[in-house]
Amino acid sequence: MRTAKFGIGHVVRHRVHSFRGVIFDVDPVFANTDEWWDSIPEKNRPSKDQPFYHLLAENSDTTYIAYVSEQNLLFDESGDPVSHPQVNELFSGMQDGCYVVRHGNSH
Fold this sequence. Notes:
Layout: E1 11-14, E2 20-27, H1 34-38, E3 52-58, E4 63-69, E5 73-75, H2 87-90, E6 91-95, E7 98-101
Antiparallel strand pairs: 1-2, 1-5, 2-3, 3-4, 6-7
């Protein structure tokens, strides 16, 4: 099992698709449904034996929750805050470009 490259509070962006977000949970290996997995075109399916990340995600149109493999994420170097409405529920603010987990959360 690999060590996760990213951690809770890190701001990341997708390597291919135009969205970014803040990580709020990490699975050491794939832990989603077969239906989710099967919905990804086979040529684009990432390996299941890598960390997967739960993101409070945003694109130019909306905010949502995303589940993304490590191979498809890069650090977001923009320094811009993530505008997802749940950011303030899970995090108390930013410090050194990383969100700080709000104490008392179960994550």
